[in-house]
Amino acid sequence: MLLSGILPPITTPFYPDGNVYFKKLESNVERYSRTPVAGIVVLGSTGEAIMLSDQEQRDVLKCAREATAPNKVLIAGTGIESAIETLRLTEYAAKLGYDVAMVRTPHYYKKQMQPANLLAFYRTVADRSPLPVIIYNFPQATGYDMPAELVIELAEHPNLIGIKESSGDVEKVRAMVAGTRHIKRSATVTETFDAVTPRMLAAGSSGSNGENGELVSIGVLSGASGSKPSSSAVTVIGNLKTRQKEVGFQVLVGAAHKLHPSLDAGSVGAILAFACLAPTACYEIYAAWKEGDAELARLKQERIAHAAQRVGGDLGIPGLKHGIDFNGYFGGPSRLPLLPLTADVKAEIERLLADIRN
User: What is each CA distance from 91 to 87, 100, 211, 225, 234, in whole angstroms?
Assistant: First the structure.
């Protein structure tokens, strides 16, 4: 699975009484699906996954899956402290049609989180998971920071395809990219080298012409006659044309205020809490970098840097949810022990986001 671009780790909307507000979840996801984000992450840290019951987690996964456009990569946060419970939730996400499982580092028994423990945990999950797995390292929340050396060792596993690195350490990103550069894998992509999801393939194979996939050359697809078959072939599934792209171990970051330097360090994209309230502003940084326009990427980064640090970092989920409300999505309340914001803090957020409305 190709991982690239910007993905918002969506919040979980609640009613004032604390119950999950599924209609607003559906509405948010449908709106994110119309933005230029590459995909959507469900049950991440900003989704208050740790606050949800087992059944609520499953219901949230199901609701978000049904509302997401087929061309968006769907990542399910399935990390739980034990490997067996992680696998149970991962298997459920796979049945729903998710593309990737994001598994946070176990951390409660910190003294036992030695390299041997983490290697055994992630290898067991990756061995048995029906979905490709990405590691989720978020030391600000877990109090445990997975060393780059351990990530590099785990990257050899064929079903561990990447990491969400939320420490904000750009040099660590650089080290992980350098240490995994030798890993080469193949991912199915579109003609324009965007990710292809199984949901897209299913939609393509059920096209009106009812044709099965076949291997043809680019020359044939472009209508060229008399040309020799090209070695760069695509597979046609209904009305969907795909090809293969070489990818490595894919590093995504979680610090919006350091997105541009992280991309320069070798990150392929980002899973950003700030993208929940400003998906287009975050995407513009990635797009400018992708086009090789370093100055524009720098300017776009400067535009959001302070707000991303303050709203997406310092103020936590209540701050993020107020920013989401302010920018036209539904944020709503958080669950205790997270408390509502004061009027002064809400006003500060609105000032910070005054020119970041998208």
Answer: 6, 11, 31, 47, 31
172 included as an active-site residue: no
Q: What is the DSSP string of 247-277?
A: E-SEEEE--GGGHHHHHHTT--EEE-GGGGT
For 318, residues 6+ apart whose C-beta sits below 8 A from its C-beta are 334, 338, 339, 340, 341
Catalytic residue among 32, 72, 98, 164: 164
CA gap 164, 153 in Å, rounded:
16
Phi, psi (rounded to 5 degrees) for 170: -65, -35
220, pLDDT greater than 50: no
Question: Residue 356: its pLDDT value, please?
Answer: 93
Report yes or no: 95 and 53 within 8 Å, Cβ to Cβ: no
Give CA separation, 45 vs 39, 142, 212, 215, 272, in Å. Answer: 16, 10, 40, 42, 11
The pLDDT score that the predictor gives to residue 207 is 56
Task: Report the half-sphere exposure of 96 (CA within 13 A, side-chain side).
Answer: 26
Known catalytic residue: 228? Answer: no
Catalytic one among 122, 136, 283, 286?
A: 136
Nearest CA to 103 among 59, 154, 176? Answer: 154
Strands 185-190 and 240-247: antiparallel
Residue 26 scores a pLDDT above 50: yes
Identify whether the C-beta of residue 57 lies closer than 8 Å to the C-beta of residue 43.
yes
Range 90-100 average pLDDT: 98
